[in-house]
Amino acid sequence: MAATIKDIAKKVGVSPSTVSRVINGTASISEETKRKIHQAMKELDYHPNSFARSLVNGNTFIIGLVIDAGNSDSFSNAFFVRSVSAIETVAQTKGYNVLITNDSSSENNNAVKNLVLERKVDGIILPVQCMTQELVELMLNHQIPFVVMGEPEQHNQKIFWIDMDNAEGARLAVEHLLSQNYKCPILLAESQETIFEKKRSAGYIEVCRRHQIAHPMVFACDSDEKVRVLTEQIASGAVQADSVICANNIIAFKVLRALKNKGINVPESIGIIAFDNYPLAEYLEPALSVVDIDTYKLGEQAANILFGQIRDKQVTPSSALIPTQIIARESTGK
Amino acid sequence: MAATIKDIAKKVGVSPSTVSRVINGTASISEETKRKIHQAMKELDYHPNSFARSLVNGNTFIIGLVIDAGNSDSFSNAFFVRSVSAIETVAQTKGYNVLITNDSSSENNNAVKNLVLERKVDGIILPVQCMTQELVELMLNHQIPFVVMGEPEQHNQKIFWIDMDNAEGARLAVEHLLSQNYKCPILLAESQETIFEKKRSAGYIEVCRRHQIAHPMVFACDSDEKVRVLTEQIASGAVQADSVICANNIIAFKVLRALKNKGINVPESIGIIAFDNYPLAEYLEPALSVVDIDTYKLGEQAANILFGQIRDKQVTPSSALIPTQIIARESTGK
DNA sequence: GAGAGAACTGCAAACGTTTGCACAGAGGAA
DNA sequence: TTCCTCTGTGCAAACGTTTGCAGTTCTCTC
Fold first, then answer.
1. Predicted confidence (pLDDT) at residue B214 exceeds the cutoff of 90
2. Strand D nucleotides below 7 A of a protein CB?
């Protein structure tokens, strides 16, 4: 039903090629013809068929965005939405659309492979958790640009990536605590296995060393029980600490609750600062100080890096660390 | 570079049509030929080109999902992510992909129009806030199925929609408070303008009437100042209330904080229950009781309704209300 | 007033599929 | 034997674009 290039050609009395050339501005066409064609396009409500286009010129103007549903806990959510929104906005301004795919709902990366093999997307943005060796090879083989969100463990590959500056965030957190007259911060992480936790630990340790803090310590808080034990040790003095840096917000909430239950004052006796500016942080009592990151910018930059490859044929792998900043609230206001 | 149907045909020694028929199972083909073709497909690593396909058979196997970036506050986030994930999962099982578009980043619904006019998506899911008259007409004209997330104000159109059962949620909240021996619940909403707030009000009023509660009251809490004034009035007895139902979580947090600052005990003196199970609700003190909704199911059902139109050619408008449930925590444990 | 380029336009092939039509051969039924 | 129905396959057109090549007309330049 929809008008095609041929309908316009017929109506104006030119060949389809001429119409195509007017649409794409790909040759010099007399003003008169241009005018008529544009008018006919209006009248017939013409819109180019993107498939026919893709078929001949080989690119689809679609990028794929892999979302990690396995990780759909609420903490990746806030991060996620603004990033997605940013990616889509950037894509739109460049004339691209964004196809999302849920990695975990299919075995074996099949959904992502489908993007490459059948949908022929022009590029892919994917979270580091979804980056399998097989997938990387597939994308490299098919020469399809991709950007990884989150720093990969090994840097031995030609991979473009982007991440928040975890190490810097940890450094800033320690500096902040010291500036508030805390003397002995410890770091609480969920485990020590993910790269971002390693980076945070490293940043923490580095600043502690620099300031000659006696015993920098990193604790694994991967269960409620551990949190309970730890707060008891802090209370009894078995663990020397006057402040904690929590590698994520949920740990912070648990610790805060445990401390209050023990009658330990926050921020007077113990200061708390957490990673990720989870929106409710400011409604806690005391309001939680956090290491914040601009998730919109994160997505925006990821998209920019991708389009650097797609459009500007940039080929030397680049990476970017999005700066973090401290939002000081009551929980570190000794 | 990628292998085409012709390459396979050549390799096996049949015509492209035969290969196509084997792929689509659209005619009877001898077992022998089938076997050879399948083998050749493996060897050449063949994957059908979705564009060429779409070009001839008219459907794209892509659905559009409009996201409302204007509303990217954290409270729609949690809702959003799980819904999106659900929609994508359903789509994937039906062989469809999901194209997202950010409505607000373009003027005049242009981005969404683009989905219809150029991308030729087979269906669209969009939030009710993005549903303009113009868009509805466009989609109807082009006979492209769509599902609205959120109940539209007017029902005079042939529109498929889905929503959480706001009225029922409010009813359950009142019933819950009464069962906990609160006698006089009031409702706090941000405004009275959105349809979901109206529904919640209606459900609240209805149950109050049924239980002959003296003065059912709905307050607009659209600023911190109003929250402050209201809590003072509650404290002084100027407003008679022993419990509040908050139309969203942020109001709940503000009220809780204001009450505590006034030294009013929750849940002993005032009970609080809020809509939306925001993940941190359980970490507040006291842990917040909420009206919960299964956002995954919401997305899942939206997708199912859409595919009902796309694949089963269902044509009589349907709608669905996703049931809510009470999660009782400390804040209503008088 | 001839030759050269520039400006403008058309023809037809190509992109990778699907599908209506046709046809050959096989296997019965009459 | 003749006719009919199936099964299996190929031919060629079609989907809506883009684009290399070639052709025509026009405008200079000498």
1. no
2. 7-12, 14-20
> pLDDT exceeding 90 applies to what percent of chain A?
63
State, as a whole number of angstroms, the distance between the CA of A121 and the C1' of D21. 31
Last residue of a domain, one of B57, B79, B99: B57
Sort out which chain B residues have CB atoms less than 8 A from A253's CB and list them: 280, 283
% of chain B at pLDDT higher than 70: 95
Q: Indicate whether A152 and A262 sit together in one domain.
A: no
The whole-number pLDDT of residue A74 equals 42
- Sort out which chain A residues have CB atoms less than 8 A from B119's CB and list them: 50, 97
Using CA atoms, how far apart are residues B230 and B186, in angstroms rounded to an integer? 11
> Are A141 and A133 in contact, with CB atoms under 8 Å apart?
no
Q: Is the CB of A48 under 7 A from strand C?
A: no
Query: By residue range, what is the domain housing residue A16?
Result: 5-57
Query: Is A138 in the same domain as A176?
Result: no
| Alpha-carbon gap, residue B115 to B138, rounded angstroms | 11
Q: Is strand C in 7 Å reach of the CB of B50?
A: no
Joined together, the tokens standing for residue B277 give: 């199970």
Cα A82 off chain centre by? 9
First to last CA, chain B: 70
For residue range B57-85, what is the model confidence (pLDDT) as tens digits? 999 999 999 988 665 444 455 567 788 98
Å: B11 CA to D3 C1': 38
CATH number of B187's domain: 3.40.50.2300
Same domain as B288, residue B173: yes
CA distance linking residue B160 with residue B145, whole number of Å: 9
A189 in the same domain as A95: no
Q: Which residues of B touch A72 (CB under 8 A)?
A: 81-82, 85
- Is any atom of nucleic acid chain D found less than 7 Å from the CB of residue A53? yes
**Is A55 near strand D, with its CB below 7 A from some atom of it?**
yes
Peptide bond into A317 cis (omega under 30): no
Q: Write down the pLDDT at residue A102.
A: 87
Asked if A102 lies within 8 A of B80 by C-beta distance, the reply is no
Q: Where are the beta strands (DSSP E) in chain A?
A: 62-67, 97-102, 123-127, 146-149, 160-164, 185-189, 218-220, 243-246, 271-275, 289-293, 319-322, 324-327
A100·B100 Cβ contact <8 A: yes
Query: Which nucleotide is closest, CA of A55 to its C1'?
Result: C15
Q: pLDDT of A62-86, one tens digit each?
A: 999 998 866 544 445 556 778 898 9
Average the pLDDT over each of A67-81, A118-132, A259-273, B295-309 and give the range with the smallest value.
A67-81
The single-letter code of the amino acid at A167 is A
Tokens of B323: 């049931």
Q: How many other β-carbons are positioned within 10 Å of the β-carbon of residue B306?
A: 27
A322/A286 Cα distance (integer angstroms) = 28
Sheet containing strand A185-189, edge to edge, reads A218-220, A185-189, A243-246, A271-275, A289-293, A324-327
Torsional sign, CA A135, A140, A141, A143:
positive
Under an 8 A CB cutoff, do B88 and A102 touch? yes
Report the alpha-carbon distance of residue A80 to residue B251 in Å, rounded. 24
* CB B121 within 8 Å of CB A125: no
CATH code at B28?
1.10.260.40
Would the Cβ of B70 be found within 7 angstroms of any atom in strand C?
Answer: no
Counted domains in chain B: 3
Residues A51, A112 within the same domain: no
